[in-house]
Amino acid sequence: MLPDSKVDNLIAFDRKHLWHPYTSMTDPLPVFPVSSASGVRIRLCDGRELVDGMASWWAAIHGYSHPRLVRVIRDQAGIMSHVMFGGLTHEPAVELGRRLVALTPAGLERVFFCDSGSVAVEVAMKMALQYFHATGQQEKHRFLTIRSGYHGDTFHAMSVCDPVSGMHHIYSGVLPEYAFAPRPECTFDQAWDDRDIHALRELIENRHREFCALILEPVVQGAGGMRFYHPEYLKQARLLCDEFDILLIADEIATGFGRSGRMFGCNHAGISPDIMCVGKALTGGVMSLAAVLASDRVGRGLSSGSPGVFMHGPTFMGNPLACRVAAESIDLLIDSGWEKLVSRLAQGLKKGLSPCAAIEQVNDVRVLGGIGVVELSQPVDMVRIQQRFVDHGVWVRPFGKLVYLMPPYIIDDEDLAFLTAAVVDVVREEVSA
Ligand code: PMP
Q1: Sign of the CA dihedral running 252, 274, 180, 119
Q2: What are the residues whose beta carbons fall under 8 Å from the beta carbon of 208, sequence distance 6 or more?
């Protein structure tokens, strides 16, 4: 444990100099200094322990400091932390590629490694553009997406985020203006209503000659509202893309590796996209790595015409440390019997969060796989609610009207009950504050 004076120093420097996600530089939200994390516990510098409800934004599916992941990263650091991927290759990249090709929906065979989720989305969008350029259909150069989506914070990723939550007005004139279909309204559990796909169909029928790709988050819309939509929508979207020669890009950065109850969101609909992005839980939350998988058709098409090569190659592409830990994380996921873990998580979340439904200012309580959402009618007071969660011994970070949980899969029943009870208590306190 750090002495108090050191912790005070650390906070003072952080507050003055370090930018945190989605915060002001001059009036930042408070931050809690962490000394270590293991299993489902995050240890604060003052000695308090918090049960983790966030898996560090979908990533730490095996909890923190998992011995198998720590071991491979130590081993690999002693062998080779990094070499450039231009002109060189290595076992960690090949072994991870092998696992990804086997695990992802059929037909995704060409793997591009990159640094983060947003970059993966940029890469996927470039692939779609370049595919139609190389195959002589330059007029197909615009993207189509659906409202309430989120795909990352870099410019082109932002251009396909929901225009309201993505704050497009700030960047108008810089962000390209792409086509947005209304968000799907039929929820995951409802009976499918065919009218839900009409608006997308109409847009595609009218403008397919200009569309190169439809990009969406399969089944779970994450940061754009934590919404679970009907898998039939995805199935129909796949059919429309086939009918009108539009590539389907599945952004599985949040949903990938079991979080929604299936290995990938696409598995709920039994479809294969043409291009798929994975990230976040890819390394079990140990370090940043993402991958873009493309079908053979995209890989070949893109490489067939001028310039014949894909113009992207990050410095840390295929980083051996990240690839090695990602391959081990996938093995660990499979060895862990993840389907049982996630369905147990779903049951615990349903049971534990259900009392929230009786709170007047709660609009909806929903659970899919290892994701539990309590949607309030008003945005929460971030500073107040964050402090309350910490006082209750849990790490939960709401945004807007949404208080949500996505704990590591390894959480046991007792910790899960503790976590959900804290959410029920804190939401009750919040709405009566
Ligand atoms: N796509 C989705 C669906 C995401 O949830 C995120 C991250 N929240 C991203 C893309 C961007 O990933 P990253 O933060 O690693 O750039």
Answers
A1: positive
A2: 244, 245, 246
Judge whether 16 counts as a catalytic residue: no
For residue 251, indicate whether it is catalytic: yes
> Looking up tokens 């113009």, which residue turns up?
311
Catalytic entry in 52, 115, 140, 150: 150
pTM over 0.85: yes
Instruction: Determine the angle formed by the axes of helices 117-134 and 296-304, rounding to 10 degrees.
Output: 60
Ligand 1, atom nearest to 252 Cα: 3
* Residue whose structure tokens are 């910790």: 415
At 168 the pLDDT is 83
The boundaries of the domain holding residue 81 are: 68-335
220 and 265 Cβ atoms separated by less than 8 Å: yes
320 within domain boundaries: yes
Is 404 annotated as catalytic?
no
Give the pair of three-digit tokens for residue 424. Answer: 């029920």
DSSP readout, 97-132?
HHHHHHHSSTTEEEEEEESSHHHHHHHHHHHHHHHH
Q: Is residue 27 part of a domain?
A: no
Q: How far is CA 421 from CA 50, 61, 79, 140, 416, in A?
A: 14, 21, 45, 51, 8
Distance 142 CA to ligand 1 centre (A): 21
Residue corresponding to tokens 């060409």 = 110
* CA-based nearest residue to 234, from 187, 204, 194, 268: 268
Pocket of ligand 1 contains residue 282 by CB under 6 Å: no
Contacts of 137 (CB under 8 A, 6+ apart): none
> What domain count does the chain have?
2
| CA 118 to ligand 1 centroid distance, Å | 6
Q: Which residues have C-beta within 8 Å of that of residue 18, sequence separation ≥ 6?
A: none
pLDDT at 394: 98
User: Residue 150 catalytic?
Assistant: yes
Q: Given ligand 1 and candidates 280, 282, 287, 289, which is best to mutate, with the most ligand atoms within 8 Å of its CB?
A: 280
152 lines ligand 1 (CB under 6 A): yes
| CATH number where 385 lies | 3.90.1150.10
CA of 185 to the centre of ligand 1 (A): 23
Q: Residues in the chain with pLDDT < 70? A: none
pLDDT value for 368: 98
Kindly state whether residue 119 falls inside one of the protein's structural domains: yes
97 lines ligand 1 (CB under 6 A): no
Dist CA 405 CA 398 (whole Å): 9
Q: Are residues 92 and 145 in the same domain?
A: yes
Cα 41 to Cα 3, 54, 166, 181, 345, distances in angstroms: 21, 11, 32, 41, 17
